[in-house]
């Protein structure tokens, strides 16, 4: 269907004439009637966060997403774009997306009076009606609201003329959605300017007050500690948010794994990668352990991005080995899992009296996580035959970051009794030596953590398993 290009055609077309909040509400209602969620790409929020989000949108309220870092707050804001119409009419050439039927700025009002039904109309994509900004102390009123443009003044306009203003982020996304991340970090004077736009519908630029009836949905994010304890959101602005939506970390290990596999960067396209499920379970358990640790700053939290980064580091170790040794399949092993610890230190904030123990805390949590997963899958498995081989034959098995699966399995000097059953219990199949080596290392590490085998660190990513 051809879109109207003039105001008269637009009025005759019967296109919906509604505010952005009414638009979001109507499109949300249509989605809910069809049995679809309000937004896609989030996991674990169906029964907690999304119902609160739906109520806020149905009520036509600006709202704040409250939660620790890495809880998909920004993703939720970006997902709201899906609820906007695909395109919306605006006055051609307008900087603030004025609705041709209800022009807001002085320039569009003048043009509408001059041209009437011939006022030119353009259709703007939904992505152009969305903006997000990370609140930082250096943000100015000019960035968000606008400032006097000296070039326009030089052209002969007066300072009190609205058309001398170079508009900022908020007016330029009129009739859209504006997301402000970490709102408490916004200086108070900027919060006052934002309050004026949202509530009083006026703007003060260089001492000149201008009426600017913007039509926007404001969604902000904040950390609970900032929002409730330090109270850095000014009270009048806090009062303007109609709803507070509390986010949270994944409630189950399965949800954490689902998020990680959806968000992690893909491996090189010319190399096959297989990640045994138990390794992602270990990473998810590691994060759960850190989130409960008294030695970790829980006000800051442990982001899901930590889990995603750990998964990517784990896969990178397997890819590095496969590329350097020329194997066709990259499979993470225990030697790759321990490389996660150094990379974790920059993503976690610790609370300890002694400095320098951060790696020890993460390594201990990793051991607890691995043993928990090992017992979940291999509890009750008779591994006495394997342990006896180490004891009776004085056998030692070495492995390192660049050793292929075939080389690692060769340390056993022959067939490994029970390997097929271990692989079945861990959900693995096939005869690829790299997958088998990954399973065997997992079994050996569990025996070590259960104090049935000894493990010596040989340095540079190499370890030796032997009798206890």
Topology summary:
Layout: H1 7-13, H2 20-33, H3 49-58, E1 63-66, H4 73-79, E2 87-91, H5 106-115, E3 121-125, E4 130-134, H6 141-144, E5 146-148, H7 150-154, E6 165-167, H8 169-172, E7 176-181, H9 188-200, E8 202-205, E9 208-211, E10 216-222, H10 224-230, H11 235-240, E11 243-246, H12 253-263, E12 272-273, H13 277-291, H14 304-325, E13 329-330, H15 334-337, H16 340-344, H17 358-378, H18 384-392, E14 397-400, H19 405-410, H20 419-425, H21 433-449, E15 453-459, E16 462-467
What do these coordinates show?
With 468 residues, this protein is α/β, with parallel strands linked by helices. The chain folds into two domains: 7-246, P-loop containing nucleotide triphosphate hydrolases (Rossmann fold, 3-Layer(aba) Sandwich); 253-467, no CATH class. The chain has helices spanning 7-13, 20-33, 49-58, 73-79, 106-115, 141-144, 150-154, 169-172, 188-200, 224-230, 235-240, 253-263, 277-291, 304-325, 334-337, 340-344, 358-378, 384-392, 405-410, 419-425, 433-449, and strands at 63-66, 87-91, 121-125, 130-134, 146-148, 165-167, 176-181, 202-205, 208-211, 216-222, 243-246, 272-273, 329-330, 397-400, 453-459, 462-467. Strands 4-7-10-1-11 form a five-stranded parallel sheet. The protein has a three-stranded antiparallel sheet with strand order 14-16-15. The chain has a two-stranded antiparallel ribbon with strand order 2-3. Strand 15 and strand 16 (462-467) form a beta hairpin. The longest helix is centred in the last third of the chain and has 22 residues, at 304-325. It starts with 6 loop residues before the first helix and ends with a strand.
